[in-house]
Design a protein that fits this description.
Length: 125
Amino acid sequence: MNSPRTTLYRDKHNAKLMGVCSGIADYTGVDALWVRLGFLILLFTVAPILLPAYFIAGMLLSKKPPHLYVDKDEQQYWQRVRQSPKRTAREIRARFRDVDRRLAEVEHYYVSSNPRLTAEIERLR
């Protein structure tokens, strides 16, 4: 069974403590170092409540499945989906339009350069 790729998980593989910061980094696509530094800065400056929140999140979040992504490209794709689903959908539609355009060009090339094929297509209509 496939695990949902749009869920926030604890990333125990890259964890320093419980894997919450590395899970957030995996979820957002931001480097784990920056997430950890941001957490520490916030912890010591404005929000000491983050420490209990970190441990609660560590207990509540599921552990990231070991084979959630097939490769790095798939991981980056799902990070983009989580960041901006509408932008990702637009990118996919643009790729399909590009494939459709290229297939039309190939079809036009083979039909226009092959009079026998053109005659055969016309005969079938």
